[in-house]
Design a protein that fits this description.
By secondary structure, this protein is mainly β. Helix content is 0%, strand content 47%. It is built from no helices and ten strands.
Length: 116
Amino acid sequence: QVQLVESGGGLVQPGGSLRLSCAASGFTFGRYAMRWYRQAPGKERELVAHISSSGSITNYADSVKGRCTISRGNAKNTVYLQMNSLKPEDTAVYYCNIPFMPGDYWGQGTQVTVSS
């Protein structure tokens, strides 16, 4: 069955960096685009970044553009989110998702907390 397992979150000071990972299994990873979303307390889930199946096309929310980089390793069935210059408003649970696969698959998420 389809599984998504996010990791790499933690507590970081403003201006710091984190690299999130999402390990995927149960489907042909290299055929599907992938996305990172986040959800802050009391707020709706927000699309953060998108990457095409080949990795050649990426898109970002305006709120993270220039600070985050989405990438993927198709040989490792893993999608990454490198986050730099983190701000307190980046605090959220981060999830990966398969946007164009029938069904609605989400991992458990990984908590990112940006605080001094």
